[in-house]
Write a structure and sequence with these properties.
The protein contains 18 helices and 32 strands. The protein is an alpha/beta fold and about 700 residues long. The chain binds acetamide and zinc ion. The site of zinc ion has 8 residues, from helix 10.
Amino acid sequence: MKQYLLSLCLATLLLSACTQQFPEANYDVIPQPKEVTLNEEKPFVLQPKTTVYYEEELQCEAQFLSEYVNDILSFKLAEQPLQGEAKEGIVLRLAPTEFDLSEAYEINITPKLVTIKGADAAGVFYGIQTLRKSLPIGESVNKAALPCGTIRDWPNFSYRGMHLDPCRHFMDLDSVKIYIDMLALHNMNQFHFHLTEDQGWRIEIKKYPKLTEIGAYRNGTVIGRNGRIYDTIRYGGFYTQEQLRDLVQYAAERHVNIIPEIDLPGHMQAALASYPELGCTGGPYEVWKRWGVSDDVLCAGNEETMLFVEDVLNEVMDIFPSPYIHIGGDECPKVRWEQCPKCQKKIKELGIKGDARFSKEDYLQSYVMNRMAKVVEARGRRVIGWDEILEGNVSETAIIQSWRGTEGGIEAAQKGHDVIMSPTSYLYFDYYQSEDPSTEPSCVGGYLPVSRVYEFKPLPSALTPEQQKHIIGVQANIWTEYITSFNHVEYMAMPRMDALAEIQWNNPTERDFDAFVERCRHIAELYDLYHYNYAKQIFNPQVYTDTVEPNLATRKPIFLREQPNEQYASKGALILNDGEMGRIAYNSGRWLGFWGQPLDAVIDLEQAATMSHVRFRALVNKGAWIYNPSHASVLVSDDGEAFREVAQLDIPITTWTDKDGNFTYELDFEPVIARYVEVIIKDHMLPEDHDGFGHPAWIFVDEIEVF
Ligand code: ACM
Ligand code: ZN
């Protein structure tokens, strides 16, 4: 017996020595499987003679597995229906009673047999994705050793989504299919397809053919950052219903549900250009050629308009079987409704009154959203709306997508709504991935590195555990004003969507960014294999900080008489004299942003000092409403109470033809001796040629230096 064991061991040793020549799979994939237990048995060898046996409902999954193996190892697996028990090969099975959660799976690897069991077909599919992502990649790899053991895995969130805007720039059907492939690779199950916009209507509606004849094309596009020069190139495109049905099928095979969005009642200028009678003024309108938020929206007082929307939603629901239908609700200015006799008459008829929180026009929007929610619910579906739909009295059945931060999501969950978290500050993948945009393709602005996405915690501590159950999922958005090609979409998506996938699937309590980056290195090899375009900053981190000259103010006590805007408060006043200078990205945490109020900072130099020069840096990013300051003044004090002014500076407003960037402003004065310095920096109002005319401009200031 002892002899036998020994020879068995020897044989195992020899065999494992043999299999060592095959590169090994590594189960440290993205998202990371929750439980991986490996043993010392000799690995399973995945090779051309391996057969995949599948239960009847899993034929499609077997085909995917075979294709993935072919993509990576250059051979296909034989596929056979499972009859009885298989002794070797790969087996795909449904085991609904063995799991508590849908989409859960288990992979069991023994020397001869790999079994992938799922709570449902989606679970089996995610098991296959894990196996796919674990495979070794390389030109000469044509067999792979799968270490033996068991992997058990399940998702933390049932809703795991990404959004795409094919309206500002059109993405053809093949590109959208690649996007769906990307989602599937990352265990995502919801594709939010934003199909209508001011700048283009992208879905064929049989009852209203002009929506695509006219609404799908604009006669030019603004050049640069929403300036005043346009090209004259007719631009557009749309998807036929037949193409969309094909897409629904394509996605369903990959366990991705497509959520169509018809954005109401704003962002509708392309529809108004097609059917001007749907608007308050009757037009004429054109498919919009610039970016931003149009004042022209659907007329909520016109019954014909409401019937139009109902018809559109019904055709949309005929095409998309999705349990969720997105009806938008964001960014709907009320200026037309305030002036429109029909809208005002409707307000009277409905007995709508404004109150301290919301105007009567806000409540009119609630009326529209609730009416459309009923149309959707009548067909057994649920509506999703952007968080603005909380402004009024939206029905509790609506799912709220929190995009302007997480506050909307918190309020919604407290009121009993289900919530999808998509805050701009973590999950808007149309922001820059580098602090130095000169090295990056164009985008809307902002700064959102992978590390920040990875930090996002979707379950706010302000919610009770019971309320947290309303956070059904997490989603990132890709808006395409400045993203003109699908290749660029890929670059904006990856690898930020890896960080997102990790949060959606695992919402890890412990986060180890360095280990995550190591796992990204492997999936990046898969991106190379599929020729996906992706950002590589995390593999070659660069630090973009300008260190300032030490000066009297550096790291001295500082306080603000006016607080910065909550969104851009970073670590507070100390950012202003920490010795590190912000670069270009206004949301890098290195700038303080103020809107509608001055920056007023007092620095305590801790002892009286002689000074004659103060300088500070401010950002200009006109498209983001950030302008240079209008005025700066320096005051000094001996006791921190009585201040006297020693210098002031008027700064003319920058114009459209001036460059954006960061600029230094300097104030010189006769030498004074004092202990306290106060710096007051005031804003401009946005000029007449700006979209936001009439509103204050933002000011973003970083280091204040005193010499
Ligand atoms: C949005 O970003 N306007 C929802
Ligand atoms: Zn109206």
